[in-house]
Structures are given as C-alpha cells and as structure tokens.
Design a protein that fits this description.
Mean pLDDT: 78
CATH topology of the largest domain: Death Domain, Fas
Radius of gyration: 28 Å
Number of domains: 3
Distance between the termini: 62 Å
CATH architecture of the largest domain: Orthogonal Bundle
Oligomer: single chain
Number of helices: 10
Low-confidence stretches: 221-228, 243-250, 353-390
CATH superfamily of the largest domain: Death Domain, Fas
Structural class: alpha+beta
Strand content: 15-25%
Shape: elongated
Length: 390
Amino acid sequence: MERMKSRQYSPAGPLMDVMLIAGKINEVLLPHWVCIDDIPNLLQNFKVLHINDCGEVLETASEVTPSHVRLTEPDFSLLAALVSSIFRVKVSCDMLIYYQPDATFLKLRLYLIPHDSGVKEAVNKSESSRGFEEIKMHRPNKFLKMHQGFSLNATVDTVKVQPKEITLRYDSQDPNCYEVLMKNPDRQFSLELRKSSSPKDDPVWICEFWEGDYPKSGPSKEATSVRTAAHAKEAGAAGPGGPAEASSTTGSANMEQKKMLKESLMNISAENFNAFLDALWGRKEKPRIFRVKVEGKSPLEVADVMITTFGEQRALEVAEEILRYINCNQDADELAKKAGAAGAAGAAGAAGAAGGVRPAGTSRTSRTSRTSRCTQTGRTWSRGLRWTPR
C-alpha cells in the first residue's frame, strides 16, 4: 500500500485475500467505500490493486458502481480497490465504540474509520485485549471527506472528550480514537460529531447514550446498595414529615411541570409550533437542541426532548422565552402563571414536610399580560409533517 501512495493512489476498499479452489470465475465485484458522485472518468481514476508473487500490479476496472468495482477475468490473490489520491474523496464511515467495564467511572473509546471490515477487525482485537467491550450503535448516515478534521462534543458539561479533533484518514494498523470520560455515568447524554471547519453546522452524527448501553460500568451494585441503605436510614431517622416526604413532594412537582410543558405546546397553532421549533434549534445558549432531534416530531415528543436536555424547570423557562419571542405572549403568561403556582405549591409542600412555613409574598411574580395571542385551532398529528389542521 505504501508504494501505491507514490503512484498517487489511495485505498478505496478493503484488501481481500481471495482464493479459487476449482473452476474459473469470469468476474469479481470488490467493495469500496467512496462516494463516486464527484469523481470524473471513473474507469481512469479507479484501479484494482493485485498483489501476487511478482509484486504489486495495478489493473483497470471493468465498471465502477456506487458500492463495488468490477474486475473481469481476475487472477485471485490479494485484491483491493484503489482511487486516485488527487481527489479529496468522500467515504462511508463506521463509528466503533467501546467502553471499559468494572470501572467506577465511564470511559469510552470511539474510532471514526472508513467502512473497512479489516480495520474494524483489527480495532476489535486491540480493544478486546485491553478488556474493553463494544457498544453497537449506528454509523454516520452521510459520506465524510477524507483528510478532514472532525470534533466530538458532549451535550452535558460533566462529560470530557479528548482529543478535541481527529482527522479522518485510512490507517489500517493503529487508527486514532476519541476518549470520553464521565465520572458519574448515571444520566442520559449525547455525543455529536461535527466538521471542525464548520462547528455551527448541523452534526454529521449524533448518538444518545443511556445507562443500559454500558451495564458493567459505573458504581458497583454493592456501593449503590450501601448508599441507598444510608439514605433510607437518614429518612427514617427524620421521622414522618422528613426528607422522604419532601422527596415525594418534589417528584409530584416535576411530573406537573412535564404536564404543563406538553399542554402548552399542544395549545399553539400549527404555524406557531413551526415557529417555536425554528427558534428552539436556533438558540445559541448551551445546552442546545439541534434540528435533527426535533424536526418532524410531535409536541409531546418535542417536550420530552426539552425535558431531557434542560431538566423540568429550565425547560419551562426556555419554552416561555421562545413563546414570547414568537409573540405568543398570552400563552407565555399562562405557562408562567401555572409554573409559578406549581413551584410555590411544591416549595410550600417541601417546607411544610420539613416543619417550615413558606414566607408570604415569595411566589413567582406573574409577568404583565400582553394583548397578542396565538391562534387556537383544532389539529391532528400526521407522521412526516409537523402539524396538520383538521
């Protein structure tokens, strides 16, 4: 392969060791991972590498399809598809993900590689020898440009990623990887891959991770049981009206906040809901919600995404801000009023359970109602669309 670089050719597919036991094969189709849309004169710029006892030979392909290179009357041995290296080609890629089991923290290793089964096998073998286990997730859905830098970012601040950037290249021996570290892997988070040259563009790959994706990582069951027993003991020592009852009150308040957000999004018109989505993914403040997460979703699904990203209380605040931004001021006032009442009730319940009394006049101040009002219309949800009026 090194000699091919001097002849200005780069790997376009896996190196395959093909052996013919008996008979004759008229043609063979060799897989490749290159996007051919931007490559002119395909037969001139694609070659087949043939390695035999005499050395390396470049053969002319008979046909190049979006997924294979056709070679007629082949001599079998080591074969691979090559593409001219004068082009910065786009390739289909895999994202290989591994985690370290039996650790008190979460450690992930992510490899962005061309769709080469040989490289994947080598990485699997290397990571298995280190004691890491694979997490099977989806691959990037778009062709990515070779020799371009890509940055991996997390949606929560407690997740650390290193290095900041990796260049996509073909390395069959020792490909580079991202390392992701999370001290307390007990919450959902997402990883997003972006072109380093265009950090404001939509991610080229997004993946959500849940605790069940890495079941052998994080605090041991024994440690969790000890903490749970300690919390139960403290709650019991506090007696009736202690922390346990306060926690129950807080949980009820959180459920009420979720309900309020969903009802608020259900009550705006189709046109205003679309405007709400535009403003939501246009926010620059972190954590952000990107178009791919909410486009084509129903109000209930959008509310769930907001709560997962921001938390219950902050999700209500963001929703109110966006409603005012799109001039749905009366809906924003109603949401603020309900949120203030629920917050006051929850705080009063928690204070009462702890033996305290909430001072008068500390409930959230309602904002001045404006005359602008979103149009209320009946509507039904249709898959593939945002809202469809009845």
